[in-house]
Specification:
Helices cover 23% and strands 21% of the residues. The protein has 293 residues and is α+β, with helices and mostly antiparallel strands. The chain folds into 2 domains: 135 residues, MutM-like, N-terminal (N-terminal domain of MutM-like DNA repair proteins, Alpha-Beta Barrel); 103 residues, Helicase, Ruva Protein, domain 3 (Orthogonal Bundle). Strand 10 and strand 11 form a beta hairpin. The two termini are 29 Å apart.
Length: 293
Amino acid sequence: MPELPEVETVRRGLEPAMARQRLIKVEQRRKDLRFPFPPHFTERLEGQRVMSLSRRAKYLVLDLSSGEALIMHLGMSGRFTVEMAGEKSPLGEFHYETAGKAPHDHVVFQMENGARITYNDPRRFGFMDLVPSASLAQSKHFKGMGIEPLGNALDGELIQTLFADKKTPLKAALLDQRLIAGLGNIYVCEALHRSGLSPKRRAGTLASNRGAMRGKAALLAATIREVLTEAVQAGGSSLRDYAQTDGSLGYFQHRFRVYDREGEKCPTPSCTGMIQRIVQSGRSTFYCKTCQK
């Protein structure tokens, strides 16, 4: 499933084609994806202007001139392609053939600038919904969602506050969308390794007032932002179905230090450990028990 950097990469690819543009025509080619489309879906979109295109956690949000917001989630295999005058817009740096097939092109947006944006989803685990923009934060999709991990709001002090009295493993706490929104398995593994923190450590230990723990919490916050920023700049990580809006694949997977590198030597300088794989809450965790404490 695409994680935050992949969704942010897609947002940046869609923005030049959609922001401030009017939706001239919307084609809905089936009645549902993971969930049924909202009632009168195309009628509520056609003729509206996209005031802005943002991201919340792993969701894309189009703020419309009608006062509604279109919420879109890519699910497991959803992807967008952008075409201008019949040609794919060169929004990425690395170009590959996409696996998209016409039978899986479920929604097509035609913009007033001539852009044609197609949503393709072979597994149909993605979805689209329309909610009032004024109550977006209270919608079923975002109510109770934690803070965004990019930006200065996430710092060591906030991590200590969020994790106070948490007895769950550190990795589980980081994946809890009620605390920090948008973090996924891959980038949590990478951030923990760079921070030298064990995924099995009890999350509440970072809330200690000891100077060392304050430093660890601050380092973790900075490292999360660093890893996510690098991944966005790299266009995300291409695992299974993910591709950018021009069909190109992200390449952050070539920078993985631990994820999917079981049995390899730890890349931390002077560390003699090996990368191990364990299972936590049904998810694979990759880490080095020698340098991650």
